[in-house]
Amino acid sequence: MKKLTEEEMKKVEGGISVWIGVGIAALTVFLAGFLDGIVHPKNCEGGVS
Fold first, then answer.
1. What is the DSSP code (8-state) at residue 43?
2. How far apart are CA 3 and CA 12, in angstroms?
3. What is the torsional sign of CA 16, 18, 20, 23?
4. What does the alpha-carbon distance between residue 22 and residue 38 come to, in Å, rounded to a whole number?
5. What is the pTM of this model?
6. HEC-encoded secondary structure of 1-49
7. Residues 6+ positions from 47 with CB-CB distance below 8 Å
8. Cβ contacts of residue 12 below 8 Å, gap of 6+?
9. Which comes out higher in pLDDT, residue 29 or 2?
């Protein structure tokens, strides 16, 4: 195995962008809430009549 220099490490490309990770996490949270709302519907409480 070759040990990379600091310059070589800076040139390494690939992986996943931070924004893609944030987007996947946001989509997962949204879908979890959406499906929970379908499976466990609640009536509106405290609304103005």
1. -
2. 13
3. positive
4. 24
5. 0.57
6. CCCCCHHHHHHCCCCCCHHHHHHHHHHHHHHHHHHHHHHCCCCCCCCCC
7. none
8. 4
9. 29
Instruction: Copy the structure tokens of residue 36.
Output: 């929970």
Token pair in block for residue 35: 């499906």
Residue type, 10: K
Tell me the C-alpha distance between 48 and 20, whole Å. 40
Distance CA(48)–CA(31), nearest Å, equals 29
- Tens of pLDDT, residue by residue over 12-49, are 887 778 899 999 999 999 999 999 999 998 887 775 65
What six digits make up the tokens of 11?
């040139």
User: Once rounded to an integer, what is the mean pLDDT over residues 4-18?
Assistant: 85
